[in-house]
Specification:
twelve-stranded mixed beta sheet
Length: 332
């Protein structure tokens, strides 16, 4: 596999992002995996290294017209962001939101230009992003707009070798049923199959969750299994996708473990994500699934309460970096 170039962003500087970046890139074995372009305010990157008590050398560039990487040494594209007011460290703020949006947008530009083949970003905060001007409900759909991508996309979570996606995501619980459709479930299953193959799994085996208790008990507790989920699974099988279920939510993990399945498609945000986070909260990764370029981050938040204390555990962000590099190499 050709060594990919990836854009790396600090996330929210008011949280643990810069500390995590320092802890990951201070490891020579990780730096050797990819050509890394860090898009960041130099001061915040240096502050992250100071907090972590670990540092790495980098070369600073002012533009991307003539990029040259040497000896597994990252490049820093120093971002001169537009809102030069102090961050409110340890809390969400408009300043952080503006910074997050600007650095991520620059990372998307580099990938659109073919300079990088993927984006890895440290934890960000949706409240701060909305304070900074985000109009979408989450970063995934904002990425889709920047990439001019109008097809189906959804967040995909990964812990170790187990993947999970969902047919509905960041919506109120009361709206779940009216947002479920046969086509939507088929799209989610298809996206999971494509994403797993991009990550190197040649023949994915995908579990599908039921919506209702006990899988609906043949319509006694709800009929969405019969009217939506099972028809969607039949269509997925006709596309050559290997699907199993639908499994009741409280027995899905056991079915996955017994059947050695690779992934789970759930019907709403917390349905399988809760089990996945219990399995390995400090190892989890989020992939922005379905987009034309790979984008990944740690499956946890900014941990504002830990800012500046050198207490952040880097394992999830390290896993995100490793997975992103693998997917970027495949994309490149």
């Amino acid at each position: 596999m050709k060594k990919p170039s990836v854009a790396l962003v600090l996330g929210d500087p008011a949280g643990i992002g810069p500390e995590l970046v320092a802890k990951v890139l201070s490891q020579p074995a990780l730096r050797a995996l990819a050509n890394v372009i860090i898009i960041a305010d130099r001061h915040e990157l240096e502050k992250g290294m100071a907090i972590a008590g670990q540092r790495f050398d980098y070369d600073e560039i002012t533009d991307t017209t003539a990029i040259a990487f040497t000896a597994d040494r990252p490049l820093l594209l120093n971002h001169d962001w537009s809102r030069r007011t102090p961050f409110h460290y340890g809390s969400a703020s408009e300043q952080s939101g503006v910074y997050i949006l600007e650095t991520l947008a620059r990372a998307v530009e580099l990938t659109q230009q073919g300079i990088t083949q993927g984006i890895c970003f440290a934890p960000l905060n949706k409240q701060a992003m909305h304070m900074g001007g985000l109009k979408h409900r989450d970063e995934l759909h904002w990425f889709a707009e920047l990439l001019k991508f109008d097809d189906f996309c959804c967040e995909v979570n990964v812990v170790d070798d187990l993947w999970a996606g969902r047919a509905t995501s960041h919506i109120p619980f009361r709206d779940i049923v009216k947002n479920l459709s046969v086509n939507g479930v088929v799209e989610t299953i298809s996206l999971m199959d494509r994403t797993l193959r991009q990550a190197g799994i040649a023949a994915p085996k995908i579990a599908v969750q039921a919506l209702n208790p006990h899988g609906g008990e043949n319509g006694l507790f709800g009929d969405e299994e019969q009217t939506i989920i099972q028809p969607a699974m039949s269509q997925a099988r006709a596309l050559g996708i290997d699907v199993y279920g639908p499994y009741p939510a409280d027995t899905t993990y056991k079915a996955v473990e017994t059947g050695k399945l690779d992934a789970v498609v759930s019907m709403y945000h917390d349905q399988f994500a809760t089990a996945l986070k219990m399995l390995g909260f400090e190892r989890g990764v989020t992939v922005q699934g379905g987009l034309p370029v790979p984008i990944a981050t740690a499956n946890h938040g900014t941990a504002y309460n830990l800012y500046g204390q050198n207490l952040a555990t880097p394992s999830a962000f390290e896993n995100a970096f490793r997975l992103l590099v693998k997917m970027a190499g495949s994309a490149g």
